[in-house]
Design a protein that fits this description.
The chain has helices spanning about 5-15, 40-55, 75-90, 100-115, 145-160, 175-190, 205-215, 225-240, 255-260, 275-290, 300-315, 320-330, 345-350; strands at about 25-30, 65-70, 95-100, 120, 140, 165-170, 190-200, 220-225, 245-250, 270-275, 335-340, 355-360, 375-385, 385-390. Helix 2 packs parallel to helix 11 and helix 3 packs parallel to helix 4. It is an alpha/beta fold. It has a seven-stranded mixed β-sheet with strand order 7-6-8-9-10-13-14, sandwiched between helices.
């Protein structure tokens, strides 16, 4: 007998798995590590899409979907690969929503997903390296590349009259890729990057890194990384009097950031992927009704990633890895009837009847081939201890 709601899925997962005639999708995110403050909300975003589909009767004439959580750690490739292997071999997932951080996502993709033919849609792996990587048609993402974010950040600094900046980045693929994109764009616009200093996550003392940056000078510090190490770099820089103007990339943005950095938050400026228009407004209604924090980083992108996997299975007429991979682009892009968040049941009905959909979801989804997505960025600053939107890019 089929199960009807995600609540049933939670019970099944607690018992160790789903029933044989149901379909498992992996939710591979950093439940530990530098993104653990935002990961629960990202998982809830994916599970919200699953719950919506199950409440409508499932896919493929009543088959229920189960989201199986697994920990990528965000930064430890061996942990992420082991978790992905368990999802594939023990939990029999047909696809993976994730991973999150670019380095572990690449490791899982190359060493697990491609080996086993498992499609992946990451909500937050933004490294430019994925844009032209040949995954054999298995990798997609719902967030735009950091090649564009780097340009947006450079434009913001130029517009604000900043002519010299020191850059620090978390010491991994994501941090290096974004730092390179920003540095190149800022230099091309006539700015000066005085120094580029990598930092590790979860260090107790960042004074050496801050000292090197301070010696190089600059009107501001660009911090590219995660809320843990990035927040510590900001706080240490401010406390030591090295910098008092800070700019940040998407990985540092978090509700946890402002309490971590205290007075250093005043005037902080940054970017984060963010949707506007009808899709964004509809998602607010959807996540508010569900009682989750959909305004946190990458929740909307996680909802869309999970929704695309389920819609692709329906379009294929079978919930197989090959069928899903072959249909992600078909359901994500025109032509077809536009489907927003909260309207997954209608999308499934159209597909079941042999029609076409153009999934817009929560973030105005548009996939540019394999491994790339379009999207917009929210420019924000901190005013009176709160993030405020400046404009969208």
């Amino acid at each position: 007998m089929k199960k009807l709601l995600l609540a049933s899925a939670v019970s099944a997962l607690a018992a160790g798995g789903a029933f044989a005639d149901d379909i498992n999708i992996g939710i591979l995110l950093g439940f530990t590590g530098p993104l653990e403050s935002i990961t629960p909300m990202m998982a809830e975003g994916a599970e919200l899409a699953i719950s919506e589909v199950n409440a409508s009767g499932g896919i493929l004439s009543g088959t229920m979907i189960y989201g199986i959580r697994a920990d990528s750690s965000c930064i430890d490739s061996s942990v992420a690969q082991a978790a992905a292997e368990r999802l594939v071999t023990s939990d029999n997932v047909v696809a993976i929503m994730g991973a999150d951080c670019s380095g572990v996502t690449r490791a899982v993709l190359e060493n697990v997903a491609m080996t086993n033919g498992i499609p992946m849609i990451s909500p937050s792996a933004t490294s430019p390296g994925f844009s032209d990587f040949d995954s054999g048609g298995l990798f997609f993402r719902t967030s735009p590349s950091d090649a564009r974010q780097g340009q947006v950040l450079a434009d913001i600094l130029v517009r604000r009259g900043i002519t010299s900046v020191a850059t620090t980045h978390t010491n991994n693929d994501y941090g290096l890729g974004l730092a390179t994109a920003f540095n190149d764009a800022f230099t091309a616009a006539g700015g000066t990057v005085t120094a580029t200093v990598p930092h590790e996550e979860a260090k107790g003392d960042y004074s050496a890194e801050v000292g090197a940056l301070a010696s190089a000078g600059g009107e501001a510090l660009m911090v590219l990384g995660y809320v843990d190490g990035g927040g510590s770099m900001i706080r240490t820089s401010y406390d030591l009097g090295a910098f008092d103007q800070f700019f940040i990339g998407d990985g540092v943005y978090s509700d946890d950031l402002l309490p971590r950095i205290g007075d250093a938050a005043a005037g902080l400026v940054g970017t984060v992927p963010w949707a506007t228009g009808d899709a964004a407004a509809r998602f607010v209604d959807v996540y508010t009704a569900a009682g989750i924090n959909g305004a946190s980083s990458y929740v909307a992108e996680s909802y869309d990633a999970a929704a695309l996997l389920m819609l692709a299975a329906q379009a294929a007429g079978e919930a197989t890895p090959a069928g899903i991979a072959a249909n992600v682009l078909n359901v994500a892009n025109a032509p077809g009837e536009e489907i927003l968040a909260g309207d997954l049941a209608r999308g499934l009905e159209i597909l079941a009847a042999g029609g076409e959909i153009n999934y817009q979801g929560a973030t105005n989804v548009e996939l540019i081939g394999f491994g790339e997505a379009s999207g917009s960025y929210r420019e924000f600053n901190v005013v009176d201890g709160a993030f405020e939107t400046v404009q969208f890019h």
